[in-house]
Amino acid sequence: WPGSEAAVLLAMANILIQRDLFDRTFVEKWVNWEEYLEKEHPDIDRTFDQFVAKLKEVYAEYTPEFAEKESGLAAEKIVSCALEIGKAKGKFAAHVWRNAASGNLHGWLVARALFFLNVLTGSVGCEGGVLPNAWTKFVPKMPLAPPPQKVWSELLWPKEYPFSHHELSILLPHFLKEGRGKLDTYFTRVYNPVWTNPDGFSWIEALKDESKIGLHACLTPNWSETSWFADYVLPMGLGPERHDTMSFETHASKWLAYRQPVQRVAMNRQGKKITDTRESNPGEVWEEDEFWIELSWRIDPDGSMGIRKHFESPYVDGKKITIEEFFRWTFENGVPGLPEKAKEEGLKPLEYMQKYGSFEVEAMPYGLHEEKGFPTPSKKLEFYSSTLKEWGWPEYVVPTYGRSHVHRVSVQEEKNGFCLVPTFR
């Protein structure tokens, strides 16, 4: 049943805990159990055995029968799956991508409960387990990067959601309707909120109302529902029509790829000097990097606003940066090991990436936590979150379960009620 996944996962965790099938060595070394006992149970001895006893007490309520009642999944299947997971010490790899975690009230607890199983089996940071995503993703240093923003935008990051890890753009039209602010100029980039987001009609109302959104420019590779309500539709290139770098968590490697506009490269190789993608792309498709560079120079032509300097050539003072210079500097200065690798082949870093299209920054990034800990406040895997308690949510300090907005109690099946599960984004 949608949203009940955390109950199932915690029932599996409970089986591992009650039967002592978890990786004691890993949990004792890499979980912040001492902080948990200190903050929540200061009256008992701060020993790992006491922590295990507390675990058994806290999770005893998550029986397979309880999970079956919540989810509809047979208790014996839950037990069977848990026992298989218990055998996979250090080799249990599972993660959440949108689905239950993003589509339900308390969905974030699903992701946390699943990761709890990774932790209990010692399957974090090791071969066969899961890794923090930053360990297998690389973001290169860019030339003349501006400093971080100093102004907090409550239209993007509202006070009501202090722990959201992405901006809450889905709520923007509602905030505008409430009078929380106004947008002078709004760019939607490869973004179709009228179709993609909940309550698309609120987006239509906001985009049509100039008292809320003064000017709307839609950067998009295809015509969309949102395009109908734009002052400018700016054709963007697809992958083969623009330059950019990319890096994904595809496997146990930290790598960087370089994408190039196919037709522009082909024309250059034919001896035609192309300096602007509009000369090579179909229609009016303009590579967005070139667009932003040009727009910034037109907004701040003399540099007095402090904008233009971030779009000037790092090689020729006062000259507008070109796409070639942008990526040349990045590959020369922002990718460890690339200049040396290129030199081995008698190439410059940019030439190497133009030839091969990708570069491995680091292979097999396992065990990085052994050197500097995990990327958390405690440098350990946080079974216990003091942050959540400090912000006023003590009920969520450890992995727990909360019923979703479409729980079986809410959806009256006896009255032909049903749960709609949309499979589109």
Automatic annotation (TrEMBL):
It is found in: Cell envelope. GO terms for biological process: anaerobic respiration. The keyword Nuclease does not apply. Its main location: other. SUPFAM superfamilies: Formate dehydrogenase/DMSO reductase, domains 1-3. GO terms for cellular component: cell envelope. Keywords: 4Fe-4S, Iron, Iron-sulfur, Metal-binding, Oxidoreductase. The keyword 4Fe-4S applies. GO terms for molecular function: 4 iron, 4 sulfur cluster binding; electron transfer activity; molybdenum ion binding; oxidoreductase activity. Its cofactor is [4Fe-4S] cluster. Belongs to the prokaryotic molybdopterin-containing oxidoreductase family. This is Molybdopterin oxidoreductase domain-containing protein. It comes from marine metagenome.
